[in-house]
Design brief:
Number of strands: 0
Largest sheet: none
Helix content: 25-40%
Oligomer: single chain
Shape: elongated
Structural class: mainly alpha
Distance between the termini: 56 Å
Order of helices and strands: HH
Radius of gyration: 23 Å
Strand content: under 5%
Length: 61
């Protein structure tokens, strides 16, 4: 789009965003999508368990 029509890159970015947003609205019929898969806990104040540090061999213990 930028090279063929000599459009500024910023305008091409906005056009691509508008096309993608329109496609998303068309696919979802304008409905909001909630709780997709296992991502419902993101932003709810909980973190997945992190691996525990072992005291043997740690340079900073």
């Amino acid at each position: 789009m930028v090279t063929k029509f000599r459009a500024p890159a910023f305008i091409a970015t906005l056009a691509t965003q508008t096309i993608a947003r329109g496609a998303a609205l068309y696919i979802t019929n304008g409905q909001n999508i909630y709780e997709i898969g296992d991502y419902s806990a993101v932003g709810q104040g909980s973190w997945p368990a992190s691996p525990s540090r072992s005291s043997s061999g740690s340079a900073f213990s």
